[in-house]
Amino acid sequence: MATPRTHLARLLLHLRRRPRALPLPFSPSSSAHGPLPGPSLCPPPSHLAPPAVSWGRAFHDGRPRGPLWRSKKLIGKEALFAIQGLKRFKGDEEKLADFVRRHVARLLKADKLAVLGELERQEEVDLAVKMFRIIQKEDWYKPDIYMYKDLIIALAKCKKMEEAMVIWGNMRDENLFPDSQTYAEVIRGFLRYGSPSDAMNIYEDMKKSPDPPEELPFRVLLKGLLPHPLLRNRVKQDFEELFPERHIYDPPEEIFGMR
User: Fold this and answer.
1) CA 206-207-213 angle, 5° bins
2) What residue spans do the PPR repeats cover (predicted)?
């Protein structure tokens, strides 16, 4: 017959060999007093767990989204520093000139072009013109129609038509002709500026371009010259000769008082 001490030893050995059961998740129905406060220590089932992407959307790292952030990633640190400094000192000519001499003039070619493009995108057109003049003095500078185009369009969109025509004159002095988009934006700018005669001057210059004409500048003029029927008829005749298969919408005469 086994002694009590031997029986106790066998019981302890049996308990050690038994696998431990994991605690079951808490269920409110298992408690007579309702659910206990605090979160459950057990993870929810996989089919009830929120997708991992929702955690990423719940936080924002402060960086701008979309094209703005992508464009900044393409600009070097020195170029970004130059842009910030130019904007900071643009109201003080003395400090601005000193900043240009110390920091902007020593930028590499790619950084200077990036600064010019970013200033145009931010509609800092006065600074963009200054940056363009700096680039023109570089040994590596060559007349580029696209550089002129971007600057002229930026000036026209900001209704800086006098400055736009100065750049336009520089472009023509270098025997460069803009594309139809540039013509259209400058014509639209003069029409918004309230100067249809200047818009017609650009139109006459466009007719001398060696490139084949496109519809866009014509349609901008035809729409903007509705209050000026004589000028509009001139453009309309040219349009019908160049694009005979295209249709032109003529609003009722009484809308603009045409007789």
Assistant:
1) 85
2) 144-178, 179-213
